[in-house]
Structures are given as structure tokens and as C-alpha cells.
């Protein structure tokens, strides 16, 4: 089976003006949104407390909120997620109660939620369901703690800095490797494509105010790796074609390289999307944001490796001479058999 | 060109496949509920313990699947958690306090496998349930305590040399500022302090004739910090042991942080209380002379202060600390050989031993009190509940002290490095006191700055969801490759399967922690690993279109795709390595599986498929390729 039976001859480079407009629009929307709306940073970055609980029976948000308010948790954000039995409680880092250590807030939240049921957690049970004492008998707790995250403000600040630094280091490492293996224009071109992909992926999270957590940041970094993979494959072919197609001009060389690698670009994106969608649908709540970032990133990354990376190299003014190895005196001695 | 595989590649590939299978296989056995018995406080377990545990289970006819002993302790596996819970109760009763038993999950892999050191993957807390804490050690407070100790030393030295001083205070620059009453005595005081306290940087204040300044050197501050961290690690390990958790992790992170991981813990409140207790001990002499009168009047004479026992009784103690709990090297409860009464044996470090010997020699038949001191430090808030920041933008911390006299035994003799506390009421009291003496001391208060707890039900859901997404994603890609590339697709299918086995094998071998993002990394690798094959196969198709013979096309396809594959994978590896270095727990897991997957996929996608293709098409004339 083949998607593209014959060697395609699309004029991708000829469409670079249209691509430039599309990319510019996407970038402008992303950047404006980032400045106007910002990111809906998760507690990994802002600090705070998150408590995720599962009730045995469906529960009204109002009653949960009331139980929390009765115990002094006034600025708690309470919402359902998944099913009507699952509830997520979030408290900002600035939340404080007299004589409560910040790390102990989550325990007070659990206590407050269990209070209306009159149940108390039993320690050292090893079952999958948490056990509670109710009327002197041990039963499955009505309110099951699923997940607690507490992040102190100092940790959050560090993560923001380190996350930014990680992104920079990754880009720098790539810049060096590609310069070393190709030529500086290719390095700059690949980094332009990467910044493009990252900006639009992050911009999407800003535009729709999706929760930007630590795993999402990991996904964005993975997108850098993925999109680069795609771009390098095309660049590799361009380099090869520079040596083979001695009479063609740069547009032809690049066009044929993109066309030759097109089946592979589409196919790999397809298989990757296949698994990413699987993750998105089956991976569960915890990695939904992660999978969604990958989903957007893979699509944008595929687009950019076709329509952004190569035109960028061209606009940077690559010429045939740049791609021919410089003949230095004595350089070929090693290469001789 | 008939595409033979070099002979040496067969043994290489077969060895890798076999090793992969051996290391991956323990993962298919799943886990059984079990009990892990360890010696309390790092005691080793002798072989009789295993017999006793087994005997008590047999006596109550509780069935177990296996019982074994290794360096980490005794492990018993059960059919279900009902037997497990009952067995734990019985074993605890039988073995008593010198052993701690914890509920855990043990691999169901047969012992001949685990004896080879072949273990299943190590699951992260987000998959098995449990709590992860990150603790910040308050170094400022450790330094402040050292400064206070030196302040007391300066006062003592001056007093002993009959040099009168007005005040010794800690100034805002972190220096100890001694004001000598008579400026003419300053040089003399200076000379004595330099001699006695050689580890301080001491100088005369040029602008003020009566002032001597003393401060800690940078190396000393570094040492205090290093010591505080080590001492805290030890103390926290001892405390974690009290929680009865199997496979706990207590680890240093950076210069001033400690990571604690407690698998399977559900009640985090208790864990927090026990870990967060910032306690220390101080030894004071009892002011016997004024004790009765001071308690009656409620007025302490200068140099002394009224303290309280836990039950509220009062006692007048000398303010000076003889030595602090961090000088206690060891403390153990036992029964006295002669009287049979409970005692606590204490061992001091050499510096404290010298002081102890001098002070106790001068105070025979007086009492010495052990004071428990708990310092809690909280972030300062203003009236509106906002955090108060200092000039550097860091939160200001306030410390609170809780003081309690644990015991005040009479000094019978001059004491030295080792001594005993007698006259305790019960064995329990002796045990509690020894535990407090040994692990009660945190060299500096700690604060939990991060907590991640995953409940057992979510852990299980994460495992099943993760497993399902890996399987579904994997099958989809397999089917796709088979339909799209036929015979070649079939080889890619085998390569992908082996790749998955190799990832699991390497993870098991390294015992790297597998987290949920790690599972996502595996899924992603499955999608990306076929990329190498796609590159090769597309290149082969291209070479066929260019009019090359089938055999030549295979050769050229593999050859020409190689540099592309290497370039593309190295750049992805760069991103993965950056992720690993930056990442905390969950992200590290993702980076690890991604990196492993990239490396193993290069092997399977290039070497293995080439061998299979050669076996299928090699060595003969082929008219058409099924690609």
C-alpha cells in the first residue's frame, strides 16, 4: 500500500508566502494571547494545594463547597472532573490559616470533606480503597483521596526559571549540533521552526486557558525533539541533493527534497498521532494535558518541517557554495584509502 | 549484491534478544501482598527470626506462598491481603519492638529468577500509590544555633578568666559583639578568646575601644551546613523507620533539601507530624541550691530559669547548656545487669565527653536534666495574612520554642564518653528516651515544601490505563505497518515488539523508576521508533522507482537512510538529556524512557530488520519486493 504512488512534485517553496502569512497569523494570535491572557499555570508553577477526591455516590459541588467553607476554606476552588463523583479542590499558595503548616492544609481539607459523613481514616490498611471508621465499624471511606499535590511557593518559582532554562539549553544544544553537522543557516532555520512550534503549542494552551502543568512542559520539550527529527530528515535530503543536483537552483533542490521525504513525513506523523490520540483517549486525566500538548505539537511540527524550516534557510540566503565542502590544503589526506 | 548478514551479527542479535527476554520476564508475574520484616534502627536480622516468624504463621495455620531472607530483611508473600493483615499482627506480637514489619507488594516472580538479581521494573509512587515529600532544611537556624553556642562559650571563657563584660550579642551582620566593661582589658580578652576559640575569626573593633567582634568563617559555615544535612538525613531515616513503611527512600537533593518517599502510605497527616518534628535535646545542670525557693516564689535567680516537666512539675535549671543532643553519637535502652532495672546507655562525641567529664566531676550528687526542645519555624504573616518579605524578597521566618524536661537523674559519678541513665520507671520509658536521644535531634528545622500523594485506587487506575494505552497504541502501529509495508512491515513489527521488550528489560535492569509520564514516554517511543523503519522502507521504495534492482535497493535503502536516522535520533536525544537534567521526578521518568527507547530503537529498527530482510530475500535473485 502506498499513500503517494508516484513521486510528488508539489511546489512547497513557491507557497512560502502563503505559509508565511499562516504562520505569522498563528504566531501573532499566540503571542497576543500569551501577553493578554497569560498561561493558566498549574500549581506546579504557582504553588498551592490540590486535592482530588472520589465520592462513593454522586455529589453536589455546593455541598462540597459548604463543607469546606464551614471549616474555613473560603477561597477553595471546587469543581467536578470526569464524573459527578469526582471532585477537585484547589487552594492558592497565599491561602493561610492560623497555626496550620502549609503542608498540612491538604489533611485539613480531607478532614473537612469527611466530616459530613462522620468518618475517620484508618491508618495502615493495604487495600485499594481507603478504609474509614464509621460507627465503630471499618468500611470503605465515602470520600476517597485520589491525589494530593502541595507545592510551596519557592518550588514553583524555581520551576518557572528552570523550565525556561531547560528550553534554552535544549535549543542551544540543537543549534550547536546542527551547525556542526550542516551549516549555520540550517541551525538557525531549525531553531526558527522550533520556536514557531513551541510558541504556537504554548499559545494554544493560553488561548483556551488549559491547565499548564509540569507534564505539559515536558510534552513541549518532547515536541522540540519530535519536530526537530522531522526537520533534520528534510535537511539531510537537501544536503544530499545539493551534491546530486548540480544544475538545479535552490528552490528545485529544496522542493525535491521535501517531496522525496513527504511520504515518510506523513507516515511518521500518522503513526505518532495514532499513539498520541490513544494516550489522549485512554491515558486518563493525569496525562490528558500532556497528550494534548503532544497532539498539537506533532501537527504543528509536521507543518513547520515542510513549510517553515526550509523556506527559512532559503530566506537566510543559502547558496551552493555554502554547501560544498571547502577544499583545504592537505584535507583529503585522511580520506584517502 | 545479495545482502548477506555478517556472521558475527547473529550471535550479537541473539544475545541481545535473550538478555532482553530474561530481564523483561519478571514483569509478567505481577505482585502479591506481602510483609517485609526489618531490624529496627538498622539492626541486622539473624536466622532464628525467620524460623520464629514461620512458626507463628504455621501455628495459626495462616497460608503463605513463600518466605525468604536477603540483605534487606525477610519477605513473606501471601495469597490475599486478608492473610497478610492477620499475619502482620501475629508477627509483630511475636517479634516485639526490635523488628519492624511493613505491608508491601512483593513480586510473584519465582525465586530462581530474583536470585539472579533479575527484578521487575521499579514502579513510581504515581503508579503504586504513596507519598513523596520534599523537605527544605532551614540552614539559617542551624547557623544561628552554632552562633548561640559560641556566644555562651565566650561568656563562660570571660567569666572564668575574671574579665567582666557588659554584653555579648549577635549583631545584624551575623557577628558576635562582645562589649568589655573596661576597655583596658580588651587586649587581654582578645588574646584569650583567640587562644580558646581558634576556629572563630576574631578581631578588635577599631572604631569602638570596648568591642571585640567574632564570626564564623566561611569554611565553618559550610561545615555546619553539611553536618546539619547529614544529621537530618540520619534523624529522618530513624523517624521513617518508626512509620513502618516498606522500601522508604530518604535522599539528599541539592545542598539543603531532602526527598522522602513512602510507598503505600495513606495517612499523610501522621507522617507529616513525625517527620516535621524539629526537636533537639539539651543537657542542663539543676540549680539545686535555689531549686525549692525559686519554685515556691516563681522567681528564678540570675543564670537560672524555671523549666517544666511534661506532667507540669517545675524544676530550676542552670541556663547554661552543658552539651546538646547533636553531640550524642548513640543511645540504647537495655536492662541493667545488676539491678535488672531499665537503663539508657549514652555515647557522646569526644568534644562533649571532655565537657561532660569536667562538669559532672564538679557536680556529683547533683542532678542533670535532659531538656527536649522543639523549634517550629513558620513564615511570618502580617495582620492581613500576607507573607512578610525581607529585603531580598524572601519570606521572613519566625521561630517558636517548646521546652520540656524529659528526665533529671542524679549524677552518681564523674562521667565521660559513655554513661548510663538509671532509675527509669519502665522499659517503655527507657525505649522512648533512647529513641528521642538518638533520633530526636534534627540539626536544623525542616519544612515540607512539596508533597505529592497518590491514593492507592488512582495508582491502580494509572497502571491499568497506562498499560492499556501502551497496548492499544502498539497494536495500532503494528497493524498499520503490516498493511502498509507487508513483508517489510512484518520485520518492522518484530523490531517494534523487541524494542518494547528491550525498553522494559533496560528499565528493569537499571531499576529506574517507572512513572506515568514514563509510560507516556514508552507510548511515544512506540510511535517514533517506527520512524527509522519508515525512513529505510521509503528509501528502498524510492531506489526501486529509480530503477535499481531489488537487492541493490535494499542495500542502498539501509545505507542512505542511516545518516538521517542517526542525525534525527541524536537531536531528539539532546532534548531528552536536557529534560533529564532539568526534570524533577515525573519528568525524569519521561526523559529516561524516551532516551532508552531511542537507543534501543536504533538497534532493533536497523540491525534486526536488516537481518530478517536478509534472511528472507538475501542470497538469491529476487524479482519483486513485497514492500
Task: Explain this structure.
The complex is a heterodimer of chains A (337) and B (627). In chain A, 47% of the residues are buried. In chain A, the strands form 3 sheets. Chain A has a 4-stranded antiparallel sheet with strand order 3-4-2-8. Chain A has a 3-stranded antiparallel sheet with strand order 5-6-7, with no helix packed on it. A two-stranded parallel ribbon of chain A has the order 1-9. Helix content of chain A is 57%, strand content 14%. In chain A, helix 5 (153-181) runs antiparallel to helix 6. Chain A has helices spanning 16-36, 43-46, 61-70, 105-114, 153-181, 184-207, 214-244, 250-282, 288-307, 309-315, 320-323; strands spanning 40-41, 48-55, 77-81, 83-92, 120-121, 131-134, 137-140, 143-151, 211-212. Chain A is of the alpha+beta class and 337 residues long. Chain B is α+β, with helices and mostly antiparallel strands. Chain B contains 16 helices and 22 strands. In chain B, the strands form 7 sheets. Chain B has a 4-stranded antiparallel sheet, covered by helices on one side. Chain B has a 4-stranded antiparallel sheet with strand order 11-12-6-21. In chain B, a hairpin with a 6-residue loop joins strand 16 (328-335) and strand 17. The interface between A and B is large, with 85 and 94 residues. Strand 8 (143-151) of chain A pairs antiparallel with strand 21 of chain B.
What is this structure's SSE topology?
The complex is a heterodimer of chains A (337) and B (627).
Chain A: H1 16-36, E1 40-41, H2 43-46, E2 48-55, H3 61-70, E3 77-81, E4 83-92, H4 105-114, E5 120-121, E6 131-134, E7 137-140, E8 143-151, H5 153-181, H6 184-207, E9 211-212, H7 214-244, H8 250-282, H9 288-307, H10 309-315, H11 320-323
Parallel strand pairs in A: 1-9
Antiparallel strand pairs in A: 2-4, 2-8, 3-4, 5-6, 6-7
Chain B: H1 9-24, E1 31-39, H2 47-59, E2 66-70, E3 73-77, H3 81-95, E4 99-107, H4 111-115, E5 122-123, H5 125-128, E6 130-137, H6 139-160, E7 165-170, E8 176-180, H7 186-196, E9 200-204, E10 211-216, H8 218-242, E11 249-253, E12 257-263, H9 268-276, E13 279-285, H10 291-297, E14 304-308, E15 314-318, E16 328-335, E17 342-348, H11 350-362, E18 368-379, E19 397-407, E20 418-421, H12 427-439, E21 446-454, H13 456-510, E22 513-514, H14 516-545, H15 550-582, H16 585-617
Parallel strand pairs in B: 5-22
Antiparallel strand pairs in B: 1-3, 1-4, 2-3, 6-12, 6-21, 7-8, 8-10, 9-10, 11-12, 13-18, 14-15, 16-17, 17-20, 18-19
Helix pairs in contact in B: 1-13, 2-3, 6-8, 13-14, 13-16, 14-15, 14-16, 15-16
Amino acid at each position: 500500500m502506498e499513500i503517494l504512488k508516484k513521486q510528488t512534485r508539489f511546489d512547497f517553496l513557491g507557497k512560502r508566502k502563503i505559509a508565511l502569512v499562516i504562520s505569522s497569523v498563528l504566531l501573532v494570535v499566540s503571542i497576543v494571547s500569551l501577553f493578554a491572557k497569560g498561561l493558566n499555570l498549574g500549581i506546579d508553577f504557582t504553588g498551592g494545594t490540590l486535592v482530588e477526591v472520589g465520592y462513593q455516590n454522586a455529589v453536589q459541588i455546593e455541598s462540597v463547597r459548604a463543607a469546606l467553607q464551614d471549616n474555613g476554606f473560603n477561597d477553595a476552588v471546587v469543581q467536578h472532573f470526569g464524573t459527578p463523583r469526582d471532585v477537585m479542590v484547589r487552594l492558592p499558595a497565599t491561602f493561610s490559616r492560623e497555626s496550620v503548616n502549609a503542608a498540612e492544609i491538604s489533611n485539613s481539607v480531607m478532614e473537612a470533606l469527611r466530616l459530613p459523613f462522620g468518618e475517620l481514616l484508618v491508618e495502615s490498611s493495604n487495600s485499594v480503597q481507603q478504609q474509614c471508621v464509621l460507627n465503630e465499624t471499618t468500611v470503605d471511606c465515602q470520600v476517597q483521596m485520589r491525589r494530593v499535590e502541595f507545592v510551596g511557593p519557592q518550588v514553583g518559582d524555581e520551576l518557572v526559571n528552570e523550565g525556561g532554562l531547560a528550553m534554552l539549553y535544549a535549543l542551544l544544544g540543537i543549534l550547536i549540533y546542527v551547525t556542526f553537522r550542516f551549516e549555520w543557516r540550517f541551525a538557525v532555520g531549525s531553531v526558527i521552526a522550533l520556536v514557531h512550534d513551541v510558541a504556537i503549542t504554548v499559545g494554544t494552551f493560553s488561548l483556551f486557558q488549559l491547565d499548564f502543568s509540569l507534564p505539559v512542559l515536558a510534552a513541549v520539550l518532547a515536541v522540540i525533539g519530535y519536530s526537530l527529527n522531522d526537520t533534520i530528515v528534510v535537511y539531510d535530503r537537501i544536503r544530499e541533493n545539493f551534491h546530486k543536483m548540480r544544475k538545479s537552483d535552490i528552490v528545485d533542490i529544496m522542493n525535491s527534497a521535501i517531496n522525496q521525504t513527504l511520504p515518510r513525513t506523513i507516515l511518521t506523523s500518522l503513526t505518532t498521532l495514532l499513539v498520541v490520540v490513544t494516550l489522549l483517549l485512554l491515558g486518563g486525566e493525569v496525562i490528558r494535558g500532556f497528550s494534548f500538548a503532544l497532539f498539537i505539537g506533532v501537527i504543528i511540527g509536521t507543518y513547520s518541517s515542510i513549510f517553515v524550516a526550509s523556506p527559512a534557510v532559503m530566506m537566510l540566503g543559502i547558496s551552493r557554495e555554502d554547501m560544498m565542502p571547502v577544499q583545504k590544503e592537505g584535507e583529503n589526506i585522511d580520506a584517502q584509502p | 549484491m545479495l545482502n548477506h548478514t555478517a556472521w558475527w551479527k547473529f550471535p550479537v542479535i541473539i544475545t541481545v534478544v535473550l538478555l532482553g527476554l530474561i530481564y523483561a520476564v519478571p514483569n509478567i508475574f505481577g505482585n502479591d501482598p506481602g510483609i517485609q520484616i526489618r531490624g529496627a534502627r538498622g539492626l541486622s536480622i539473624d536466622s532464628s527470626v525467620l524460623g520464629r516468624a514461620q512458626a507463628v504463621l504455621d501455628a495459626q495455620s495462616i497460608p503463605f506462598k513463600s518466605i525468604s531472607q536477603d540483605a534487606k530483611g525477610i519477605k513473606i508473600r501471601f495469597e490475599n491481603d486478608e492473610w497478610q493483615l492477620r499475619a502482620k499482627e501475629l508477627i509483630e506480637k511475636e517479634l516485639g519492638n526490635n523488628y519492624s514489619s511493613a505491608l508491601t507488594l512483593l513480586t510473584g516472580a519465582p525465586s530462581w529468577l530474583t536470585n539472579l538479581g533479575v527484578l521487575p521494573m521499579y514502579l513510581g509512587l504515581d503508579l503504586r500509590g504513596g507519598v513523596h515529600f520534599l523537605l527544605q532544611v532551614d540552614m539559617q537556624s542551624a547557623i544561628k544555633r552554632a552562633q548561640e553556642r559560641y556566644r555562651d562559650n565566650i561568656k563562660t571563657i570571660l567569666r572564668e578568666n575574671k574579665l567582666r563584660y557588659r554584653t555579648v550579642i549577635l549583631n545584624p551582620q551575623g557577628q558576635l559583639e562582645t562589649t568589655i566593661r573596661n576597655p583596658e582589658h580588651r587586649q587581654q580578652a582578645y588574646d584569650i578568646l583567640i587562644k580558646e576559640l581558634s576556629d572563630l575569626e576574631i578581631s578588635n573593633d577599631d572604631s569602638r575601644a570596648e568591642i571585640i567582634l567574632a564570626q564564623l568563617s566561611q569554611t565553618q559555615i559550610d561545615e555546619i551546613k553539611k553536618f546539619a544535612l547529614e544529621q537530618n538525613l540520619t534523624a529522618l531515616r530513624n523517624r521513617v523507620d518508626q512509620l513502618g513503611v516498606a522500601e522508604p527512600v530518604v535522599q539528599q537533593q541539592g545542598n539543603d533539601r531532602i526527598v522522602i518517599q513512602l510507598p503505600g502510605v495513606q495517612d499523610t497527616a501522621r507522617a507529616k507530624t513525625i517527620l516535621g518534628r524539629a526537636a533537639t535535646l539539651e543537657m542542663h545542670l539543676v540549680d539545686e541550691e535555689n531549686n525549692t525557693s525559686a519554685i515556691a516564689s516563681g522567681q528564678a535567680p540570675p543564670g537560672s530559669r524555671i523549666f517544666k516537666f511534661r506532667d507540669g512539675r517545675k524544676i530550676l535549671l542552670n541556663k547554661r547548656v552543658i552539651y546538646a543532643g547533636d553531640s550524642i553519637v548513640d543511645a540504647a535502652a537495655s536492662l541493667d545487669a545488676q539491678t535488672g532495672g531499665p537503663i539508657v546507655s549514652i555515647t557522646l562525641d569526644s568534644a562533649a565527653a571532655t565537657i561532660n567529664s569536667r562538669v559532672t566531676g564538679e557536680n556529683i550528687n547533683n542532678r542533670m536534666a535532659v531538656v527536649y526542645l522543639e523549634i517550629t519555624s513558620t513564615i511570618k504573616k502580617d495582620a492581613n495574612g500576607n507573607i512578610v518579605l525581607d529585603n531580598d524578597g524572601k519570606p521572613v521566618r519566625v521561630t517558636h520554642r517548646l521546652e520540656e524536661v524529659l528526665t533529671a537523674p542524679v549524677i552518681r559519678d564523674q562521667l565521660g564518653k559513655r554513661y548510663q541513665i538509671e532509675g527509669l520507671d519502665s522499659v517503655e520509658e527507657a525505649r522512648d528516651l533512647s529513641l528521642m536521644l538518638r533520633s530526636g535531634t534534627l540539626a536544623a528545622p525542616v519544612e515540607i515544601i512539596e508533597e505529592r500523594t497518590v491514593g492507592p485506587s488512582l495508582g491502580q487506575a494509572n497502571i491499568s490505563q497506562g498499560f492499556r494505552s501502551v497496548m492499544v497504541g502498539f497494536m495500532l502501529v503494528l497493524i498499520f505497518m503490516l498493511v502498509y509495508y507487508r513483508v517489510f512491515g512484518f520485520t518492522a513489527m518484530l523490531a517494534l515488539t523487541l524494542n518494547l521488550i528491550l525498553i522494559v528489560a533496560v528499565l528493569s535492569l537499571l531499576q529506574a523508576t517507572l512513572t506515568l509520564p514514563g509510560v507516556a514516554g514508552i507510548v511515544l517511543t512506540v510511535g517514533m521508533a517506527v520512524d527509522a523503519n519508515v525512513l529505510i522502507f521509503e528509501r528502498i521504495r524510492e531506489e526501486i522507482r529509480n530503477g535499481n534492482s531489488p537487492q541493490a535497493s535494499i542495500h542502498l535503502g539501509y545505507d542512505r537512510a542511516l545518516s538521517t536516522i542517526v542525525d534525527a535520533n541524536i537531536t531528539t536525544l539532546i532534548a531528552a538529556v536536557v529534560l533529564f537534567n532539568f526534570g524533577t521526578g515525573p519528568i525524569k521518568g519521561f526523559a529516561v524512557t524516551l532516551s532508552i527507547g531511542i537507543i534501543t530503537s536504533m538497534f532493533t529498527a536497523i540491525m534486526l530488520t536488516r537481518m530478517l530482510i536478509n534472511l528472507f530475500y538475501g542470497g538469491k535473485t529476487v524479482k519483486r519486493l513485497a514492500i
